[in-house]
């Protein structure tokens, strides 16, 4: 979800957590460092080349939990055993998957479910740099060597958590020969400033991060671009339009406004449960009421909201109206909304239309979308992006079936709730290939449907 970070599931934010090695305000470089950062007691956190030819990334959740990820999208939670080894559960299900993992930190090796592996050394530079009037904490992670490599700047979603701690791509991509610059969004992690969802401010910070990455990489810097998930799908193209880059990748982002996102999510809530156009039309009256409060900066519109709650509150479909922000406004008393709303939606340009930027952006773009995304429904975004393709814009669109926000496959419980299991095969490879080659290949990327730009 992008509009509001209230309902972002932990699976969308859990990557491979790290601790910033350099204090804010300093720059340190660790040549051939074993990992961007490792917490005491979790020396196994790193990325490994396994003897079967695959790679596995291991990141810290806390002192007793790690998360592993492979390039095919499989993942699991590792829990420390009394004997020092670790056992795995599938995805975010808490269901054992039979994998047992152990580390030899002195030898920089791993035993992953019976397959041996060796830590991949990476070159890591931690830095404090100036964003748009605020000091930000960042990190450049490079593959070993002196060759020029493409560099991708990882652009935040709406989460409040530290990207330096949680983004696993900061190791997975360098292990494939790609440089990565990751940084904490203003007001999060080790960065200064006040948290905001103002896309222009965030785009300016993104541009500063790109410039810092190019400076740090020096002669090794090749093509450079952005990868942004969720809310980053609004920020990264805007940054690319302000100051050109070589490529943009958007994961589970939108080509509609935040208010339209909420409307589309409400419609998805109802249609996925079998309700028709009549019920959806009524639910849009609720969306109108919540939108009126948002655009007033939570100062007025509460009578309208109370009226639609009274009118539709006993309808059988009403309990399924969720959206991205409407659910919170339906459940929260007026006094609390007036107090907390402006903070929760700090800086959000609710009516922001991304299409003028996208229509005038000639940067090659890869959009990767989830077919069953109830946080950021993708159908209208796909339609708009394909229209841009028809106009000759260099936009590639990939849609993965049976996935939700974060491009996660999932299981559905009896009560309709989803539990994520993994990313689909092909998701990581698609991003890797686009960064390395400025395009994705002609081969299949898992089960995705790919719409390529017009020749």
Automatic annotation (TrEMBL):
Domain Peptidase S9 prolyl oligopeptidase catalytic: 352-412
Alphabetical keyword list: Hydrolase, Signal
GO function term, MF aspect, one: hydrolase activity
InterPro entries, per the entry: AB_hydrolase_Est10 (IPR053145), AB_hydrolase_fold (IPR029058), Hydrolase_4 (IPR022742), Peptidase_S9_cat (IPR001375)
Keyword Glycoprotein: no
Classification via Pfam families: Hydrolase_4, Peptidase_S9
Residues of the signal peptide: 1-21
Domain (Serine aminopeptidase S33): residue spans on this chain: 151-243
Stored Gene3D superfamilies: alpha/beta hydrolase
PANTHER family: ESTERASE ESTD
The protein, known as: Alpha/beta hydrolase
Organism in which the protein naturally occurs: Dyella lutea
């Amino acid at each position: 979800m992008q509009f509001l970070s209230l309902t972002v599931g932990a699976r969308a934010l859990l990557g491979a957590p790290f601790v910033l090695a350099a204090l804010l305000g300093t720059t340190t470089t660790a040549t051939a460092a074993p990992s961007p950062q490792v917490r005491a007691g979790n020396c196994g956190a790193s990325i490994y080349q396994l003897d079967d030819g695959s790679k596995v990334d291991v990141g810290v959740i806390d002192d007793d939990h790690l998360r592993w990820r492979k390039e095919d999208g499989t993942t699991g939670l590792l829990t420390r055993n009394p004997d020092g080894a670790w056992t795995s559960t599938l995805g975010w299900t808490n269901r054992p998957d039979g994998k047992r993992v152990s580390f030899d930190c002195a030898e920089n090796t791993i035993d992953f479910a019976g397959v041996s592996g060796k830590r991949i050394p990476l070159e890591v530079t931690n830095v404090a740099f100036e964003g748009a009037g605020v000091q930000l904490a960042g990190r450049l992670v490079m593959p070993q060597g002196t060759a020029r490599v493409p560099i991708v700047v990882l652009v935040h979603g709406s989460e409040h958590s530290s990207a330096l701690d949680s983004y696993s791509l900061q190791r997975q991509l360098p292990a494939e020969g790609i440089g990565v610059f990751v940084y904490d969004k203003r007001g999060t992690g080790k960065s200064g400033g006040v948290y905001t969802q103002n896309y222009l401010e965030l785009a300016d910070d993104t541009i500063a991060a790109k410039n810092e990455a190019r400076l740090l990489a020096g002669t090794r810097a090749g093509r450079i671009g952005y990868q942004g998930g969720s809310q980053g799908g609004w920020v990264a193209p805007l940054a690319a339009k302000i100051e050109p880059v070589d490529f943009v990748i958007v994961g589970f982002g939108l080509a509609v406004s935040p208010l339209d996102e909420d409307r589309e999510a409400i419609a998805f809530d109802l249609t996925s449960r079998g309700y028709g156009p009549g019920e959806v039309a009524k639910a849009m009256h609720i969306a109108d009421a919540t939108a009126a409060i948002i655009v007033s900066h939570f100062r007025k519109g509460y009578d309208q909201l109370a009226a639609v709650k009274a009118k539709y509150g006993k309808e059988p479909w009403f309990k399924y109206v969720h959206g991205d922000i409407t659910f919170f406004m339906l459940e929260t008393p007026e006094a609390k909304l007036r107090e907390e709303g402006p903070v929760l939606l700090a800086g959000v340009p609710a009516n922001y239309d991304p299409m003028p930027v996208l229509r005038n952006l000639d940067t090659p773009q890869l959009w990767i979308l989830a077919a069953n995304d109830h946080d950021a429904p993708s159908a209208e975004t796909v339609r708009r992006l394909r229209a841009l393709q028809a106009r000759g814009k260099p936009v590639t669109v990939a849609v993965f079936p049976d996935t939700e926000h974060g491009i996660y496959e999932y299981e559905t419980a009896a009560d309709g709730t989803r539990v994520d299991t993994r990313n689909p095969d092909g998701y990581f490879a698609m991003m890797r290939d686009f960064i390395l080659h400025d395009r994705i290949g002609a081969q299949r990327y898992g089960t995705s449907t790919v719409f390529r730009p017009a020749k």
